[in-house]
Every structure is written in C-alpha cells, then in structure tokens.
Amino acid sequence: MIITKMTRNQKGFTLVELAIVLVIIGIILGAVLKGQALINNAKIKRVYNQQREVLAAVYSYFDRYSFFPGDDPNSATRWAGVTAGNGNGLIAAGAGSTAPNYACTATGTEQCDLWNELRLSEFISGSGFLNPTNAYGGRIALTYYSVQGLLAHWIAFQNIPYDACQSIDLQFDDGVYNTGGIRGTGNYGTATSGVFDLYFKF
Length: 202
Known about the structure:
Elements: H1 15-65, H2 75-78, H3 110-120, E1 140-147, E2 150-161, H4 162-172, E3 182-184, E4 195-201
Antiparallel strand pairs: 1-2, 2-4, 3-4
Helix pairs in contact: 1-4
C-alpha cells in the first residue's frame, strides 16, 4: 500500500493584509466621491457665471449701440443677414411675452438675432444664431417672458438638475422657485429628481 502525503501550502490573507486592502479601497472611494462633488460644484458655479457673462455682454452691447441686441433697429444696416429689431426695449417678437427659444438657427426673431449680434459685435465668441450651451448640456435663451407671474427679461437655462437649481437659488437668491430673481419651471425645492428650466431676471 502506498501512502501519499499531501502538503498544504495554501495560504490565506492575514487580517493585516485584509485591513490594508480595505483601507486602500476606502481611500480610492473617498477620492472618487470627492472628485464628483468638486465637479458638481464647478458646474453649479459655471451656470451662475454664465448668466453673469451673458448679462455683461448684453449691457456692453447696450452701452455701445443704445439698444439691446436683437431689439436693435439699426442692426440690419450694420451687418448683413440680420433682421432689425423694433427698438421697443423688449427682446421679444413684440410688446407681449415670448417663450424662450432654445433652438435658434436663423434670423427673424429678436431672441435669436440677439446671439448673432452679440457675436458680430465680438461680445461673445463664435458665429451665427445658435444658442450657447450651458454647463449641463442644455441651451441658454434670453427673452421677455412671464415666469411664475413676473413679466420681465429672463436669461433662461435649459435642463438644469433639481439639486443644482436648489443650490443656486439658495446661494444667490431666496431659495424659493416662484419668487425672487431666480425662478424655475417647477418646484425644484421639494424635488428629489428631474431637471428644470432655471431663469435669472435682469
């Protein structure tokens, strides 16, 4: 009879080794989560800064030409391919309010001509009538419009996540979606998901 000896050289992880691995995993997860928070905060700040940049460009145009871009009745004589505005002080089709147009492609409406005129006057970069893109991938529009009952000029940001809307409104306004100078298309203050259009009054 042959007796075979089985040697057991199988080794497992020691508690110290397992602890080191868990610490490393924790550090990696912490870095990832912190990085995500930094990205989210940067996007929120970018949205707020974008509306300030648009506002500065519009008022710079006004200082130079005495009319708002898009509403400028002299723009067609200044640049080819632009439809003159009616000069009534409203960036809209007429005296009434006009919903934000996030899909501008050509001349013909004041809120679309606005982008082209800002670019032709070199207050913003690029060329043409297309709306700028916001930090969350949606578009930016500017129009004279009634938002939550307040008729005014608004810089509108399309498809902003609910938590970003909450944060921006709390940091820079009253935190309520239907009052103050920052408003939304819905109650992002109590939302737990979804996107909203965010409006900044000027």
